[in-house]
Design goal:
The chain is α/β, with parallel strands linked by helices. The protein is built from 15 helices and twelve strands. The chain starts with 10 loop residues before the first strand and ends in a 6-residue tail after the last helix. Bound molecules: guanosine-5'-triphosphate and magnesium ion (MG).
Length: 457
């Protein structure tokens, strides 16, 4: 069967995470789903023939080889095409834990199902036209969301917040192409159906609408991925202590020795629902030993990709030229955090823009998180009701291509290039929009989208 990726095989996976839990969900999808489930219930292939759709039935499951009972489970049939994947689906809710769900999956495989690849259920839903590609992406985002605002954005996308806008734009581009064809077909008529400058104005309008969508991309990507917030500073400046305080648990090792942290340590936190990916890094200094130097290298790499940097410096200690030089060399916004304020007696107010904190007393922590939120998510905070619609580089890149082509089309018309030639731009814009929806999608795009899914989704 090598290379034969038939859509007609039946796949199985545990949809809930492995491990202890009251209930586990096992999903079968494909033409053999009902037959396999029937055999598992010890009633043969057409056991589910009279079953009402989407209604749970409590049944005993048996090992197909030995006949030994496996579990009592709730079995539900979702007949295609009105199921998640569009195929027949059977969901089996078994008891959770380490053995029962795995044994039931194994039994399904014995009965002819194939273990599903990551994201394969959603991939089938997409291939069967139940979801467009932006919705499939949203399913992964919804599951991965670690902060409420990330969830809101993913849910909005699942409800076609982006997909329907792209579909509309595509319709408009198609409409434009149709107008152009009329124009090409009747070039010499006194009354050409629609004058070229009207077509050019419509094109400019579409390009402007794409730009509006693109304007939401920075916020959308940040909300989806979390703002990468790197804690940097000299050794012993209190980075790991601040990291732990923000995360709310002792994740990073803290000692009074300089050079404690070596690897970068990451944790996602939610500040008022906004996701931040905090990264604790090795203290920056020259003359460090081999392992510490490697850590410092890693720190620099994170600093390059940071959305925001928290530069930690002990309160009451003056900043040297090295600190200033370092701060000036950074390409991302920086907040200077004055740490350990509890150790200095009345240090006076911190300089402009510096944030005094103490993890011992908790002073300044609340204000710091508010500042982080406002710095990164100011636009989103202000436009409370508007959910950003573009959330991935894939979508933004293709939208930019589409906008570029539409503008190219307008320019071509303006410079008197024959309409037939200019229309090639419209075709390219249409392709870019279709690729966002997955109407056309090269295999490697699909692989990339579904690779990030967990098994059973
Ligand atoms: N009193 C007081 N001590 C603090 C505070 N924050 C950190 N410390 C102490 O400062 C020392 C260094 O703290 P760390 O958090 O390990 O500092 P670091 O910047 O991560 O250090 P490296 O990983 O070595 O670069 C520890 O002994 C902490 O207990 C604070 O707010 N108040
Ligand atoms: Mg540290």
């Amino acid at each position: 069967m090598d290379g034969h990726r038939s859509l007609v095989d039946t796949i199985v996976a545990q949809a809930t995470p492995p491990g202890l839990g009251a209930v586990a969900l096992i999903r079968l999808s494909g033409p053999g789903a009902a037959g396999i489930a029937g055999a598992l219930m010890g009633c043969g292939g057409d056991a589910m023939a009279g079953w009402a759709p989407r209604q749970g039935h409590l049944r005993c499951l048996h090992d197909p080889r030995s006949g030994e009972p496996l579990d009592r489970a709730l079995v539900t049939l979702f007949p295609g095409p009105s199921s998640y994947t569009g195929e027949d689906i059977v969901e089996i809710s078994t008891h959770g834990g380490h053995t029962i769900p795995a044994t039931v999956v194994e039994a399904c495989v014995t009965l002819g199902a194939r273990p599903a690849r990551s994201g394969e259920f959603t991939q089938r839903a997409y291939l069967n036209g139940k979801l467009d590609l932006t919705q499939a992406e949203a399913v992964a985002d919804l599951v991965a969301a670690r902060a409420p605002r990330a969830r809101t954005v993913a849910l909005h996308q699942l409800e076609r917040g982006l997909g329907s806008r792209i579909a509309e734009l595509r319709e408009q581009v198609l409409g434009l192409a149709a107008l152009l064809i009329q124009h090409i077909d009747f070039p010499d008529e006194d009354e050409a159906p629609v004058p070229l400058d009207r077509i050019a104005a419509d094109a400019a309008d579409i390009a402007a609408r794409i730009d509006l969508l693109l304007a939401t991309a920075p916020a959308g990507e940040l909300l989806r991925e979390g703002a990468v917030t790197v804690l940097a500073g000299r050794p012993n400046s209190g980075k790991s202590s601040l990291f732990n305080a923000l995360v709310g648990m002792e994740r990073a090792i803290v000692t009074e020795e300089a050079g404690t942290t070596r690897d970068a340590i990451e944790a996602v936190i939610s500040v008022d629902g906004f996701p931040f990916r905090l990264v604790d890094t090795a203290g920056l200094r020259s003359g460090a030993g081999r392992v510490e130097s490697l850590g410092i290298e890693i720190a620099h790499r994170y600093l390059e990709g940071a959305d925001l940097i928290l530069y930690c410096h002990e309160a009451g200690k003056a900043m040297g030229d090295r600190d200033t030089e370092f701060l000036e060399s950074l390409g991302s916004p920086v907040v200077v955090v004055r740490t350990k304020t509890d150790l200095v007696a009345e240090s006076g107010p911190a300089s402009d823009g510096e944030m005094p904190v103490s993890v011992k007393t908790g002073e300044g922590l609340e204000r710091l998180t508010q500042v982080l939120r406002d710095l990164v998510f100011r636009d989103v905070v202000e436009s409370r009701d508007e959910v950003p619609v573009v959330t991935r580089r894939r979508q933004a890149g293709l939208l930019r291509d589409a906008a570029g082509e539409i503008k190219g089309f307008g320019d071509a018309l303006a410079s008197g290039i024959p309409a037939e030639v200019a229309s090639a731009h419209l075709k390219s814009a249409e392709s870019a929009l279709e690729e966002i929806l997955g109407v056309i999608a090269p295999d490697e795009v699909l692989d990339r989208v579904f690779r990030d899914f967990c098994i059973g989704k």
